Amino acid sequence: MTRKQSLYLGITKGLDYHEMVFASKKHQWPDADKLMVDLFVEFAKYITKYEKEMLLALGLPDIKKVRAGEDVEGKYVVPDNAQRQLQEIMREWLGKIYSERSSELFNKYMVKQFNVGRKHFVEKMREGKSPDYEDEYLYQVVQNGGKRISAELSLKHINEIMAHIQEMAISGKNPMQIGRWLHQATGEGRSWWWNRIARSESSLALDAAFESSMEKYQIPFEEWVCESSACLICSQFCGGVWQRGEGPEVVSDTHPNCLCLRIPRLIYEDKTREPWTRPSPYDMPYTPIELDALR
Ligand SMILES: [Zn+2]
């Protein structure tokens, strides 16, 4: 299967495969890429920590055994207080990553990434202004990203996990089968998802710096710069120039883990592109015919 075919398949399957392909990509800016990696590494430490605690709370084999997938005999029985314990673990996990008020892991990295974006923007404009921390675009990015994270590490999610484990126990699955499932569903087996979060949210924070600076410096044009191996969706934007505020936006108009950039242009003598009006792919996924047309 060629790369294009696999991406195409990923998109038509509802983005998950596509997202996984993008989860390991490098950014054009080394300092932005380093922050994305660091954020993911920090997330990953918590995945292992809390997966261990969940396995223990559910009376399942420990993480070493689960990783190795050794066989375990016997039928699994769900402990009485499992749900309550999982909820506590999940609450603590979320508290370590994101908080509406304080500067937890996620908030801290978004501010850093925003400042990388601002620094590059300012360099591009050859002005020596220092980046500021209080910014409405950054605030929105952190709030929205925080909500996405909270939705994943939520009590609702615990209810779904518990319902699935109960079903598996009733159908006579052994503890290792259940441990393996948990590992894939919410533990280390789902690390790609956290990498996706780290990269998508970092891109959004970089883009917020662009967005907040465009108005401030009255930049007339915005140009789309594709990542080195842009996908079908992003390729159509490569090198495109729009009037300020009229072009597509990184991630929300493309896909998670989009590492494209928007850069300011002071002068542009050709005709700019028409304003971008298509709804986000999340609202209306690209059809196979449209994707074909983008090749
Ligand atoms: Zn892209």
What general outline do the C-alpha atoms trace?
elongated
Quaternary organisation: single chain
CA radius of gyration is: 22 Å
Please identify the structural class as seen in this structure. Answer: mainly alpha
Helix coverage percent? 55-70%
Count of the separate structural domains: 1
Order of helices and strands: HHHHHHHHHHEHEEH
Bound molecules: zinc ion
Question: Quick one: biggest sheet?
Answer: 3 strands, antiparallel
What is the overall pLDDT average? Answer: 83
The number of helices is 12
Strand content: under 5%
The stretches of 5 or more residues where confidence is low (pLDDT under 50) are: 1-16, 127-133
How many distinct beta strands?
Answer: 3
Strand order of the largest sheet: 2-1-3
How far apart lie the N and C ends?
16 Å
Question: Could you characterize what this model shows?
Answer:
Helix content is 57%, strand content 4%. α1 crosses α2, α6 (105-124) runs antiparallel to α7 (136-152) and α6 crosses α10 (191-216). With 295 residues, the chain is mostly helical. It has one domain. A three-stranded antiparallel β-sheet has the order 2-1-3. The protein contains twelve helices and three strands. Bound molecules: zinc ion (ZN). The site of zinc ion (ZN) has 6 residues, from loops.
